[in-house]
Design brief:
Length: about 425
């Protein structure tokens, strides 16, 4: 899988991967912003408003009908957190002209896509007041509803407490208290600022139809002089204090989240040791924690650990009975100690390598995953091929894993407890 990257302006590039493997083509446009408290809510609101209509298709229904006319092309706009970046992503996937028999389809779709990104429906020099107010209400509902998914909420709360004072603690979905100050003009002015100052990465995956993707970028953006490039995240090796946070809520199952600092940047050669070590520790159904905490001792409904790559953080979460809190924490600590002592088998290593390899190889089976992989390499400044990454994973030794896991230090324990339970019951 070879991608060709071309710079067409300051902070503006196109990466193309040509393949005949798929019957569709995929184009993602990634606008990179700093994860900043002052604009995170507007960045979350922007995709919702932009999906409401364009200059020539001013309503949601008109826009959807046009996409259906274009052989059911799939348009998506979102905002997400990538380390200490907030990424506004536009993507479109459409049937390749070889299978539709429609000449000029690619160009028509790209023109439509350009309209969605750069020619929104306006009222003068403002977004539609009606659309903005409706989407503000939808955003408030979405933010307030985040507590309904208790597992996701607990993980976010652990991140907030663990990374307090760091940009990564900012909730990427936005904040209710910021919504009122946004109106159509404020949001449109911010939208213009975003386009004029952000690093923009276009990633295309599909057949080489020889169309010029540069045409979707307005000329003024190719002539920009000042662009904000988001700096590399700060990696904290070890916290000086260990946090313990307990929140009581009307829940029937406890949510336990442990946040660890690993302090191993993703560009470090030891990172692959951390990646495989996490897989053995708590990354899947063959992990030490799954076997011991869930299967052997029946203490957890689920238990899993994941790495937040850009911050070198390991997050472990489990659903448990309230009274099993201390027993579960003790077993998790023992599991990490087992990793440090090398108490894992060669079979554990092979299963972990196979799992990561299979996951990595699946990237080439999806144009969307390929786009995400290429974009991830760009923001990580990583020029390795997928094949090279897999080969380096295969070369990881037992000593690499032990050394990497030895750097994993517990920083924060978050526990969502029941409302009417006495804390001392947990030791029984």
């Amino acid at each position: 899988m070879e991608s060709i990257r071309k710079e067409i302006g300051k902070g503006l590039s196109i990466s193309s991967t040509y393949t005949d493997k798929f019957k569709s083509n995929y184009l993602g446009v990634y606008i990179i912003r700093p994860l900043d408290r002052s604009e995170v809510t507007m960045n979350s609101l922007l995709p919702m408003v932009l999906e409401r209509g364009t200059k020539n298709h001013p309503g949601t229904l008109e826009l959807k009908r046009k996409l259906e006319d274009l052989f059911g092309s799939n348009l998506n706009i979102s905002a997400s957190r990538r380390g200490e970046r907030q990424v506004i992503k536009f993507s479109i996937e459409w049937a390749d002209g070889r299978y539709t028999g429609e000449k000029g389809l690619d160009r028509e779709i790209l023109q439509m896509f350009k309209e969605v990104i750069f020619e929104p429906h306006l009222e003068g020099d403002s977004f539609s007041g009606k659309y903005v107010e409706q989407e503000k209400n939808n955003l408030i509902t979405r933010i307030n509803n985040k507590i309904n998914d208790k597992r996701s909420y607990s993980i976010n709360r652990c991140i907030e407490e663990m990374c307090r004072g760091e940009r990564f603690s900012i909730y990427p979905g936005g904040y209710v208290e910021d919504v009122d100050q946004i109106d159509g003009k404020v949001l449109y002015d911010h939208y213009r600022k975003v386009l004029q100052t952000s690093q923009i990465e276009m990633v295309y995956t599909g057949h080489d139809n020889h169309f010029n993707m540069e045409d979707i970028i307005p000329a003024e953006l190719r002539e920009r002089k000042v662009v904000t490039f988001v700096p590399r995240e700060t990696i904290i090796e070890k916290s000086q204090n260990r946090n313990q946070v307990r929140e009581k809520m009307p829940v029937t199952q406890g949510k336990l989240v442990l946040g660890y600092r690993a302090g191993i940047p993703y560009e470090d050669k030891l990172y692959n040791g951390l990646l495989l070590g996490n897989e053995i520790f708590g990354g899947g159904p063959n992990s030490i924690l799954f076997r011991n905490v869930r299967e052997k001792h029946s203490l957890a409904y689920y238990v899993r650990s994941n790495i937040i790559k850009h911050k070198s953080i390991v997050l472990l979460d489990a659903g448990i009975e309230f009274q099993n809190y201390q027993k579960t924490v003790d077993l998790i600590n023992q599991g990490l100690q087992d990793m440090l002592n090398g108490n894992f088998s060669d079979e554990d290593m092979e299963i972990a390598k196979k799992s990561v390899r299979t996951s990595s190889e699946s990237i080439i089976d999806s144009p969307q995953l390929m786009s995400e992989f290429i974009f991830g390499k760009i923001i990580a400044n990583d020029d390795r091929s997928l094949e090279e990454m897999i080969r380096q994973l295969e070369e990881v030794t037992r000593e690499d894993i032990i050394l990497a896991m030895g750097k994993v230090n517990l920083d924060t324990i978050y526990f969502m407890d029941g409302l009417n339970r006495e804390v001392q019951d947990e030791s029984n």
